[in-house]
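User: My instructor asked us to take a sequence, write out its structure as tokens, and then describe one feature of it. I'm not sure where to start. Here is the sequence I was given:
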Amino acid sequence: MAIRGVLFDVDGTLYAFEGAEEAGLHEHLVAEGLTERFASPAEALRVWRELKEEEYDRFLRGESTFTGQKNERTRRFLAAAGVVGASELADDAAAAWFADYAARKNTTRRAFDDAKPALDDLAGRYRLGVVSNSATVHQRSKLEAIGLLGYFAEPLVCSQEHGAAKPAASIFLAGCEALGVAPAEVAYVGDNYETDAVGARDAGLQAIWLDRSAGGATGDGAGVGAGADTAPDTGIRVIASLTELGSL
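Assistant: Let's start with the prediction itself. The structure tokens for your sequence are:
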């Protein structure tokens, strides 16, 4: 069936978040005098990302709020750094610490180099939208900052407001409804194999897994999921760059 709409994941697909995260955390730890609390910058980043994954998963399961997971991530990270009283840090203090980190991270945030050219190519031919495991105000602000918000139909569909997170079928179907296009006529593009590609395919959309590592990319651009030696499931198309979407 012909495609009439395209939905996108944000982080790791359009927004190169890993590089901004690493630079922002390093700068923040220097400013806070915490760099010596870890064996190396790489170890600090490893701890930060491990805690982020755990606390963000709690948010996605509905066990914490979007703000709450940031506060708890901050407490646990500072506790890992040996900061006295970190575990009992008040919400406003934890939120202020995280806000300072985010401000530093945001100075280096950018879209992937292939994002704008791909969206320019698609915008005149398809309805474009966003389905993201995040909060709407957060993702709208981010997309505006990296110059991509204007490409997408409103509402942006995000898990906090929708009430369920990818890979639940309902959030993909809500994205299709926002476009006004039937699921079978919508492609979903994301960098996480299980959450994005398998979830979209199982919801009845045309699934496209962005695996930047397939094109030789590493680090900030690597896709997440199946692994280099694993063949994708039936019904999942693999691309190494968003520029390949021109052949939809």
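For the description part of your assignment, you could build on this observation: The two ends are 11 Å apart (CA to CA). Try explaining in your own words what that tells you about the chain.
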